[in-house]
Amino acid sequence: MARVTARTSDIEKAAAVLRAGGLVALPTETVYGLGADAENPAAVARVFEVKGRPPTHPLIVHIGGAEHLGDWAEDVPATARLLAERFWPGPLTLVLRRGRRVPLEATGGLETVALRVPDHPIALALLSAFGGGVAAPSANRFGSVSPTTADHVRAELGDAVDFVLDGGPCEVGVESTIVDATGDTPSVLRPGGVTREDLEAVLGRPLAVHSTSRVRVPGQHPSHYAPRARVVLVEPEKVVAEAEQAQELGHHVGVFLPPSMADAQVKAHAVVEVPASPAAYARGLYGFLRELDLQGCDLIVASLPVEEGLGLAIANRLRRAAGPRPSQ
Ligand code: TXA
Ligand code: MG
Predict the structure, then answer these.
(1) What is the pTM of this model?
(2) Domains in the chain, please, with CATH?
(3) Strand partners, 35
(4) CA angle, 36 as apex, 19 and 82 as ends, to 5°?
(5) Are the CB atoms for 116 and 92 separated by under 8 Å?
(6) What is the ipTM of this complex?
(7) pLDDT tens track of the chain, all 328 residues?
(8) Could you tell which of 53, 60, 102, 177 is best to mutate to test the pocket of ligand 1, judged by most ligand atoms within 8 Å of the CB?
(9) Which element (helix H / strand E) includes 264?
(10) C-beta separation of 105 from 53 below 8 A
(11) What number of CA atoms fall less than 13 Å from residue 152's CA on the CB side?
């Protein structure tokens, strides 16, 4: 999938860093992860420290293949096995009962564990060379925008990471879909790279998606994926007027110009033309937010895409980017 192939020596070096209890930033098809040996509680503790993440927020454990599921989870329902077979490697995370290899430090004290097999040749090569599970949240500071290039990771975490594996820009661009697969009726805890429609096609029945406004699981906060600039969401046809009004009031406004308004002229500090294809939008989303921050915008005006397919995950991230900030 990815265009960049890491040298074998880099993979070996990264595996050695993990074995020594260090932190490796690794590319996945969704976003870059900040990885540690999932079975080393001290290494896992460093992930929380570097991210500034509360220790009760569970991490995703990345494994090399569905055949290892039994090592990392217990009482795996047939439905979960089906989903793993169909979507792994891929942007799907399954929440299951914690297996014996998973320390409580990685799950934030929960008796469940989130597992996924990433669809990226470098991540898979690392998992194979390392041999164990890699606990990895997105490689950004708590609450901020997830990184989709190695440069984003270096800019945000710098020397706090022992080794950065560069796998080029992430193909999917938004995080994995998280599914509670502990019971016979799976439900979506976080929309992401695998669409609800894809899941329903495999399951042969409708799937519950938890409301985005309720805190359902640790780590799902109203404010998340947030750039420095404040984000305001309005109807697509109001984006231009809202942006120009704020710009006149003295704001440095960044605009996400929706595809339906592509021909509009807008007087603002910076303009992002939102791609019409949801896949291209998802791939670019976090980079666009970072770019508007870099250009000095203090306000971003955007609208929500249609909430189907990847649009569901994009809308979820935009709502949280626009959510009330802890400091406000
Ligand atoms: O695409 C992704 O999922 C990326 C890449 C690196 O794999 N990872 C990622 O990790 O997004 P993170 O830590 O930013 O988000 C993981 C979320 C947590 O915030 C939490 O909501 C949920 O996964 N989670 C993890 N373990 C869980 C569990 N046992 N039960 C419920 N939710 C869990
Ligand atoms: Mg994250």
Answers:
(1) 0.95
(2) 8-209 (3.90.870.10), 230-321 (3.40.50.11030)
(3) 24
(4) 110
(5) yes
(6) 0.99
(7) 444 567 889 999 999 999 999 999 999 999 999 999 999 999 999 999 999 999 899 999 999 999 999 999 999 999 999 999 999 999 999 999 999 999 999 999 999 999 999 999 999 999 999 999 999 999 999 989 999 999 999 999 999 999 999 999 999 999 999 999 998 889 999 999 999 999 999 999 988 876 543 434 556 676 788 899 999 999 999 999 999 999 999 999 999 999 999 999 999 999 999 999 999 999 999 999 999 999 999 999 999 999 999 999 999 999 999 988 775 4
(8) 60
(9) none
(10) no
(11) 30
Longest dimension (CA), the chain: 59
For residue 210, count CB atoms less than 10 angstroms from its CB and return exposed for 0-12, middle for 13-18, buried for 19 or more.
middle
State the distance from the centre of ligand 1 to the C-alpha of 140, rounded, in angstroms.
13
Output the ligand 1 site: residues, CB below 6 A: 28, 30-31, 33, 57-60, 91, 93, 95, 107, 110, 112-114, 116, 118, 136-138, 175-176, 178, 189, 217, 219-220
